[in-house]
Amino acid sequence: MAKEKACRRCKVITTGKVCPNCKSTDLSPDWSGIILVFDPAKSQVARTLDITTPNKYALKVS
Ligand SMILES: [Zn+2]
């Protein structure tokens, strides 16, 4: 299984070296908690975290 990293800017979780969402390379291997957002408009969590794109996000990124 590939090591997943979380973007420090937008918290998207990715196995790549570049964030697929904001194109940042500022990725952290030290994260915890996963939020799956399918419909940001209907998700309270997504609104709280300012998420606008359906994706997999980390709850905490160090
Ligand atoms: Zn990002």
Automatic annotation (TrEMBL):
GO terms for biological process: regulation of DNA-templated transcription. This is Transcription elongation factor Spt4. It comes from Nitrososphaera gargensis (strain Ga9.2). GO terms for molecular function: nucleotidyltransferase activity; zinc ion binding. The keyword Zinc applies. Stimulates transcription elongation. The keyword Zinc applies. Keywords: DNA-directed RNA polymerase, Metal-binding, Nucleotidyltransferase, Transcription, Transcription regulation, Transferase, Zinc. Belongs to the archaeal Spt4 family.
